[in-house]
Amino acid sequence: MNIKIVACDMDYTLLTNEGKLPPGFDDYIKRLYEAGVEFAVASGRPGYTLQELFPTYRDRFDFISDNGACIRHGEKIIYTSLMEDGVIQEMSKMVLETKTGIPIICGLNGGYY
Q1: Could you tell me if 71 and 47 are in contact, meaning their C-beta atoms sit under 8 angstroms apart?
Q2: How far apart are the first and last CA of the chain?
Q3: What is the distance between the alpha carbons of residues 65 and 77, in angstroms, rounded to a whole number?
């Protein structure tokens, strides 16, 4: 079998129950790359937070973030599925009108509220 990429979810999959990387993580990644296999981090988390968690690898890993709405190879964005401005405004208005919370918009480079 010729594996090209390994994609791994973060919470309770890649990370331990304590939210830490598993022991020997760097060695596993080194062995994957030596075998010619890419590594991708997949998560519902925003892409910029994933890159912050992996500073050593941020130029090398693939990051599948925002529940698949953004895919980066290193620093380069290779795919996005963005909401239209009208949808964002409508959702924000709905949250504000219910007075039950604060709308937080997650962009490609940061969160806004």
Answers
A1: no
A2: 47
A3: 11
Provide the pairing of β-strand 38-42 with 5-9. parallel
In a 10 Å sphere around its CB, with 0-12 CB exposed, 13-18 middle and 19+ buried, how is residue 41 labelled?
A: buried
pTM: 0.82
Concatenate the DSSP letters of all residues of 33-50 into one string: HHTT-EEEEE-SS-HHHH
pLDDT in tens, 46-84: 988 898 899 999 899 999 999 999 999 988 999 999 989
- In sequence order, the 6+-apart residues with CB closer than 8 A to the CB of 86 are none
Q: Which of 58, 59, 53, 48 is nearest to 109 (CA)?
A: 48
Mean pLDDT taken over the chain = 91
Give residue 5's pLDDT. Answer: 94
